[in-house]
């Protein structure tokens, strides 16, 4: 939803005149009925305030009573709900929602059972001065102290006076200053689209339909809630090209998922979501296409599958697999799409929005192709990037810039350093292990940068590195360990085994089948199209295809074979790959080996530097 001119002016004034301890939300859907107050303002001690903004002029108000207002508009006479009544209804709805949280209500005294802070509501007339308001008939149906007029929100107005106008919207003064934890609980209730589930801390388990009647809500702690930067970014991303550089587990994909759902509500043009991995595409598809009404407008696809779709749709000859094999087939597939777009056989600019996850894995010419697919009227392009997870050999030229491939992101880039996914112990071991190949880099907002991750501080068990006599013993150990975990009430689908070489996947899969342990081999026959994250089975997946995914428990066998014996890249590339695999673990990381190697030595050193809780 686009701001009206008056809403934009008020938003600027709120930002200028309110201090840093205020929180501000614009057009957030509240509660089960998805009500949309214009602005919600929260102050830790003064309370919660709902502001309805009206750009009306006196000569456009034809008639008004306590319930409705009749307006003269360009489209004729229009009757609307009284804005003060509307603001009051919104305030009561927010209050009712928050009062269901026992930690947000007073436990004793005169206001026992009521919200811990007062609440208020009011109307902002952005085109009516206080003098004109008082001399009109409006005071008969608007309480004067519940109205803020245009001359009371000028840039020259004193910040203290402006804040007092907001405080006067509430008739109550009680309660103690909110604690940071209480503030985060309020954010959790008001902004449900960006919740992370208490159990899994999953980027995709987004609860957008909390039942108001639920007797007891399970609230995640402060470290399981996205920080303010991300919350504000998810709602405020405007048109134009955007790039988000973020470390693994920083919530980049959550931003994408929410952004996609938001755009599906406000645009009728088709939306394209692309990523590199088939398995991640399946996971994304499960999230953003939950609403069947949106399926026809949202297309989620891995990049090369999308290229194949275009060739089929526009009846362009596909590469012959007998002539082109392996990597050559992929290169020819993409080149035929690029050639067809250049020749206008495939139309450009067909999507109202394009969102790209795993941008670090895309070659410059692929990025250029994707940028061409955005409709110039909407110009909505979002690229998610983490050069630390660049695993496919695309070493960027130092002179590479987004502008060179048609991505105009200057002044519209964001960097996320905070890792929410992993415990401090998992992230500490993973980064200590791989730090020598992940030196942070800097650059302007048109260049690729490598960001050093910072832990959000969530604590958990120290990762394990288990030494065993042979790989057969490793497989036996994995089978016993996952059964033990399941007996401790960890669902099968919250466990992943991430492996490096085909022989490992083959032996693990066959052994688990014989042991009747439910297991889904995500990479079987190189086809992850039907990957089902919700199916109650352990996920057996390659290190490459684990990118973008996450699981509460991750087991990684065969560490002793790396980087040389069964690693196909350089030691540096294999170290990055293992780093990605390790950072899939949200709570618990278990690694096994049957021999010593460069990697086992580095891991033992890393483990020795991580504190045990």
Topology:
Blueprint (H helix, E strand, L loop, with lengths): L4 H13 L5 E4 L12 E5 L3 E8 L6 E4 L3 E6 L2 E6 L1 H17 L19 E7 L4 H6 L11 E3 L9 H9 L12 H11 L37 H9 L3 E7 L5 H15 L4 E5 L2 H11 L9 E5 H11 L13 H16 L10 E4 L7 H9 L7 E6 L27 E4 L1 E2 L4 H11 L19 E2 L8 E4 L3 H17 L7 E5 L2 H13 L4 E3 L16 E5 L8 E6 L14 H12 L2 E9 L4 H12 L4
Parallel strand pairs: 3-7, 7-8, 9-13, 9-14, 10-11, 10-12, 12-13, 15-16, 17-22, 18-20, 18-21, 19-20, 21-22
Antiparallel strand pairs: 1-2, 2-3, 4-5, 5-6
Structural account:
The protein has 16 helices and 22 strands. The strands form five sheets. It has a six-stranded parallel sheet. Strands 17-22-21-18-20-19 form a six-stranded parallel sheet, with helices on both faces. A five-stranded mixed sheet has the order 1-2-3-7-8. Helices cover 31% and strands 18% of the residues. Strand 4 and strand 5 form a beta hairpin. The chain folds into three domains: 220 residues, no CATH class; 187 residues, P-loop containing nucleotide triphosphate hydrolases (Rossmann fold), CATH 3.40.50; 146 residues, P-loop containing nucleotide triphosphate hydrolases (Rossmann fold, 3-Layer(aba) Sandwich), CATH 3.40.50.300. About 5% of the residues have low confidence. With 613 residues, it is α/β, with parallel strands linked by helices. Helix 6 packs parallel to helix 7, helix 9 packs across helix 10 and helix 12 packs across helix 16.
């Amino acid at each position: 939803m686009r701001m009206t001119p008056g809403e934009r002016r008020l938003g600027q004034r709120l930002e200028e005149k309110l201090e840093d301890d205020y929180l501000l939300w614009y057009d957030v859907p509240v509660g089960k009925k998805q009500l949309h107050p214009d602005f919600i303002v929260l102050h830790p001690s003064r309370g919660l305030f709902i502001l309805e903004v009206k750009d009306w002029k006196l000569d456009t108000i034809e008639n008004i009573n306590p319930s409705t207002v009749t307006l003269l508009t360009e489209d004729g006479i229009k009757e609307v709900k009284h804005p003060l009544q509307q603001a009051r209804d919104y305030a009561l709805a927010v209050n009712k929602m928050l009062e269901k949280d026992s930690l947000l209500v007073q436990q004793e005294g005169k206001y026992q059972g009521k919200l811990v802070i007062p609440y208020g509501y009011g109307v902002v007339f952005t085109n009516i001065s206080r003098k004109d308001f008082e001399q009109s008939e409006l005071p008969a149906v608007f309480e004067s102290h519940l109205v803020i007029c245009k001359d009371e929100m000028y840039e020259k107005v004193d910040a203290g006076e402006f804040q007092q106008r907001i405080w006067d919207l509430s008739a109550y003064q009680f309660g103690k200053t909110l604690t940071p934890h209480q503030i985060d609980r309020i954010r959790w209730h008001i902004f449900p689209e960006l919740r992370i589930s208490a159990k899994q801390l999953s980027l995709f388990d987004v609860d957008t339909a909390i039942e108001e009647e639920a007797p007891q809500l399970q609230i995640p702690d402060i470290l399981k809630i996205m920080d303010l930067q991300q919350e504000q970014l998810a709602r405020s991303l405007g048109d134009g090209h955007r790039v988000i550089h973020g470390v693994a587990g920083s919530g980049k994909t959550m931003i994408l998922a929410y952004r996609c759902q938001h755009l599906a509500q406000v645009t009728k043009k088709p939306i394209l979501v692309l990523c590199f991995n088939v398995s991640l595409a399946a996971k994304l598809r499960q999230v953003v296409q939950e609403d069947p009404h949106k399926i026809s407008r949202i297309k989620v696809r891995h990049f090369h599958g999308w290229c194949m779709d275009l060739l089929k749709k526009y009846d362009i000859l596909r590469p012959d697999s007998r002539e082109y094999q392996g990597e050559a087939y992929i290169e020819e597939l993409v080149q035929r799409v690029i050639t067809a777009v250049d020749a206008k056989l495939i139309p450009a600019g067909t999507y109202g929005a394009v969102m790209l996850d795993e941008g670090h894995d895309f070659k410059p010419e692929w990025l250029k192709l994707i940028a061409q697919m955005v409709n110039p009227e909407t110009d909505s392009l979002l690229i998610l990037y983490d050069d630390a997870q660049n695993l496919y050999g695309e070493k960027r030229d130092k002179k590479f810039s987004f502008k060179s491939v048609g991505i105009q992101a200057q002044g519209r880039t964001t960097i996320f350093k905070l890792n929410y996914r992993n415990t401090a112990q998992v992230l500490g071991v993973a980064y200590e292990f791989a730090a020598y190949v992940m030196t942070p880099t800097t650059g302007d907002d048109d260049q690729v940068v490598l960001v050093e991750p910072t832990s959000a501080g969530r604590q958990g068990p120290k990762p394990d590195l288990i030494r065993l006599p042979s790989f057969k013993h490793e497989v036996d150990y994995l089978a016993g360990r996952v059964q033990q975990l399941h007996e401790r009430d960890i669902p099968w689908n919250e466990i992943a085994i991430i492996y490096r070489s085909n022989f490992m996947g083959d032996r693990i899969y066959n052994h688990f089948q014989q042991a009747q342990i439910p297991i889904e081999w995500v990479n079987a026959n190189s086809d992850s199209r039907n990957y089902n994250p919700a199916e109650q089975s352990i996920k057996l997946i390659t290190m490459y295809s684990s990118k973008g995914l996450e699981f509460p428990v991750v087991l990684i066998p065969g560490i002793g074979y790396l980087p040389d014996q069964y690693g196909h890249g350089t030691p540096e590339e294999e170290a990055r790959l293992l780093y990605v695999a390790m950072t899939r673990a949200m709570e618990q990381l278990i690694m096994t080996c049957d021999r010593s190697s460069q990697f086992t030595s580095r891991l033992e050193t890393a483990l020795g530097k991580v504190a045990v809780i």
